Every structure is written in C-alpha cells, then in structure tokens.
Amino acid sequence: MPDSVYNVLFLCTGNSARSIMAECILNREGKGRFKAFSAGSHPKGQVHPLALGLLKKMNYPTAELRSKGWEEFARAGAPHLDFVFTVCDNAANEPCPVWPGQPMTAHWGVPDPAAVEEGEAERHLAFADAYRMLDNRIRIFASLPIRSLDRLSLQKRLDEIGRPLPKSA
Fold it and tell me: Which of 60, 83, 88, 137 is surrounded by the fewest CB atoms within 10 Å?
C-alpha cells in the first residue's frame, strides 16, 4: 500500500446514484487519505436527479459529478487504483476489467434507490437509506489502520464491511 493518498473506485451498473454518492462521501470523509472515483458498467449518462438533490442538500460539491463507464479507469493513463468496491449486485456479477496493479476489491451491495417506483416520499426515503448505508460503510473503511494491516487481514475487514447486518428477531 502506498504512503500517499489511496485511490478508490466505486462501481455500479448505471453510475447514477449509489456509486456517485459513495464517491462524494469518501472524498469528504477521507480527505487527505483517499481520492474516490465512480463508474458504471453501463452508465446512464447522467446523475440521478434525486441523488444529485440529496448531495446538494448535504452540501457536497456536485458540479464535477458525471456518469461514466468503468473503461475510463482500465486504460493507460488512468489513476492507479488501490481499492475497487462494487455497490450494486449487478456490477458485482459482471466480469470486471482487469485493473492494473491488482487493487483490493470487495462487494458492498446496497439496494437500488432508483428502482423504487412508489410515491415521491418512498423514493426520497430509498435514496436517504442508500446514502446512510454507504456512509456507515465508508466511515468504517476510512477509519481502518490500512498501513498497519497485512493484505489478508485488510481483505477480511473489507469483506466484513460489506456483509449485511443480521436481521433481528
């Protein structure tokens, strides 16, 4: 692991909501230690308006956000990636590009808020829930003593972060 800033890529299928929110959260939470990016296997081409609205409401910078394909990060000249996290089930099941440098990977699946088709309140709640789940996982990740963990221990911790909590009886 490098002594400088760690580059982290969050992947999803459409790169319009979950991966975009994760990028913003880590760039704020991990400022100085992490640089986050996001991409999709089949990008929608625009950030979901409800994700954008939520991020703006929480004072995240949004002017530079855009929906983009993951091939941008697999080509020559792309940032070296230290970590790659999938945040949706579809992207986790797709064959990913070969990332130069063998970054550490984990799956942190979060339900797709953009798939909620009920009323407006339910849609806003779905985005808030997705944000909360991502924020919790990313705060745990950003607090890990990465430099003092060996790869196997770090991989175990990354996988644990993505595990769903057991349902209470």
Answer: 60
